[in-house]
Amino acid sequence: MDRRADKLEENILTLFKQACRQGRLDVAEHLLRALEASSEKGSRAGLSGGREALINAYRTVAKLR
Question: What's residue 65's pLDDT?
Fold first, then answer.
């Protein structure tokens, strides 16, 4: 994955975590979907960079419980 895509996913992940901390789960849900879409697109292209951000986001969700 090119560096711009990695940076985009890093930014989305940062915003996702911030939304979770602030209790804005409605916003967090949209950001999680963006990470899922990015990961899916990367997987089809044979890239795995977005998958790491997605896994990190899922770990954040698990900690909310």
Answer: 79
